[in-house]
Each structure stands twice: as C-alpha cells, then as structure tokens.
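Changelog-adjacent note: as of this version, every example in the card shows the full chain rather than a window. The one below runs 281 residues end to end.
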Amino acid sequence: MEEKEVLKRLGFKEDENLGKVEQLKNYELSYAGGKESPNDYFYLTDKNNIDDLMSAYLKVLSTEQPVLPIFYYGRIAGWRAYLNPDLSTKDKKIRYEPPYIKIHEKDVQPGSTDELIYVPQSKKDKNGFTSADTRIERGHVLLGCASSFLPFKSFLKRVDYNKYSNIINTIPQFKRANGNHSKSHGQEYFEKIITDHKDLQFFYECEAIFARPTDKVPIGTRIRIVEVERQDNNADPTFVKNSDLSTQVFIPNCDYIKSENTVDDYRAFFIGGDLNSLKWK
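Full-length structure tokens:
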C-alpha cells in the first residue's frame, strides 16, 4: 500500500505526517513499502546520537532489572528489556497474581475495543461479531516469548483467559499489524528475529504509539532490536556494531482492506476505540 493511503488509515489528513507525533519526534521516518510490497512499516533512524543513553539503559537492565516500563503521559505504553537466555531458568517458581483490575462484562460498552480485548468470548459468540470486530486482535506489546529470556515467569501474559486480561501489555491491533504473513510484515515478523536466535542476547524496546495522549487505540508500534554480546560472564554487555539482526521500525496499526472509511472515520476510531466507527465492503 502507498504511504499516503497508510497515513489516511491512521487518521492523518493530507497536510499531516507522523513526524508531528510526540513519541516519534526524535526519529527520521522512511517508508519501506509500496503498492504491492509486504513491507508495511517505516524504518526509524535516531535524529540524535543516543549511544551514551543506550549504554546506560543496558547497564541498568543487565545489572538491576531486566524489564522496565516506557511511560507516555502516565500510561505504560511499552517496555525496555535486556533479553538474555543465560538468565532464564526452567524452574520458575516465582508466580504473579492476575492483574488487580478485573474486567467485568457489565462494565464494557458493546461494540468497543474493550469488549474485544478484555471480555473473553466463546466460539459461538465470535460468530456474531461484525466484519469490523474480526479484524481487531488482542496484541501484546512485549513479545509473548519474553519469559524465555527472563529469570522469572513472565507477568505480562494473560492469566486465566476466562476471567482476566493483562491490560498493561495488551493493545487492540489490526490482524495485519500484529501478525506475520508472506504478503504482510507485522509485529510478529520482527519478533521472529529474536525467536529465531534464542541463543543470542538482545536489547529490546517495544512501544505503542498514540497520535494524541488521550487516544484509546495506538496508531502503531515502535520496535527497536539491537544485538548484544559479552566477552565473558564477568564482562559488561556491549552492543554488536553493524549487526544484521539489529533494526528499528514503526509498524502502522491499520487495516489494508477495501473500505468506505474516510480519514475522519479512522481518526474517530483511534480517539474512542469504537469499532462501529469503521465499515468495510
């Protein structure tokens, strides 16, 4: 899909662009896709030299706490992590209670993204979803296999699917933005860099990006993957220079289906999270 059409489906008018988004203001963006290309994402390049800042992050993550939240106006928008398979243990006895906030069906507005994300649906109920509903998935910000690289059982996965959903790591995502297919490269496409190299170490950032601080649905996800190495077990980890595995991208959270939606329809969806804002042929 052409860049102009992608921006429209993210709710941007013709005179607007991603460079105006606060969470993306420190990056140069370059669209990797085209009309028939599966590369439905933007490459990101840091505008400023952040080598010292990155090294400081890695120092804290490797010595004190392997996962830290990324905040955006008081909201946990993402995670910064040091993924090291050597720290993982098979016997993970530390377990966490389900999230303190239990989502009840009576508190959810019909047709909203809350209904799809937080209220588990039986198979027979799913058949009653509209075409708009079925194109939204429960997406994880931090990759689901993170526990394979952490010294404790991941507390970011959903617990007890029939009652709870971990709201601090779950976002509404269009299927194409969340998955990985031959004709589309979503979040799983980049997570596969890590899952295909489970013997390596990585510095990893994943952040849900919002057009406005009060929006309910993110317009996409920023992912940074940097390969890390240690000369020996006692040495501090360092970044691998010019690694083919390192990358940073922004993955648009939009549909790629023929539709009648206007830019205002899409903007209304990201603001309010109302699935009824959108319609498809």
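Structural remarks: Helices lie at 3-9, 51-63, 113-118, 123-126, 175-178, 187-195, 263-272.
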